[in-house]
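WARN no homologs supplied; continuing
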Amino acid sequence: AGDPRAEDGPWDAEEPFPAFERVDLGSLQVPIGPEHEIQLVMAEQHGAWVTIRYRESEVQIQAFAAARRGALWDDVRAEIAAEVNTAGGRSQETEGSFGIELMAQVPTEPGQGPAELGGMRLVRFVGVDGPRWFVRGLFSGPAAEGGDQADLLEEVLRDVVVVRGEHPVPPREILELRLPPEARQALEEQAAAEPQNRFGGDLNPFERGPEFT
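OK structure emitted
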């Protein structure tokens, strides 16, 4: 199958990559655009990930450390398939724009979508092995099946730059994600100004810096 990255990303910070305006989220630098929304999600159990939303679709992106030689996607894909199976879903491998992908029917969480669909929704997992890192993308919504929403989200994913860093990180550990400095500052200022701000005012730190428009 060759290297699905060879032609067009996601990129490693050490290699030449197309110049776009990107927001710096630590291990991932994500391209900014007029049509999609970028959100950093911090979760207790699953670490952090970046969600990119476009219309009714989204892709969740996580970057993990990997050994210098050694692809993770084959193993990870088998583990995801086993987890889907255990949860009462089903999955199958398909050949897609990122090489071998995993299409899965997973049980919907309560409150997500109509119950008459049998409580299943379609999601699509993609994986990309890079130099000392591995990126996983999870497409949901209409983009799971392809189409124009998938095209835009795939394009954003391909133009992500992964910053692996020099410090040793055990394989499979999530590479650190963090808010950009201007958003952190905005949040701190917001916390300091909270009493006056309770009845209005700008409480959205993501609309302050030029990066988040």
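The radius of gyration is 18 Å.
OK
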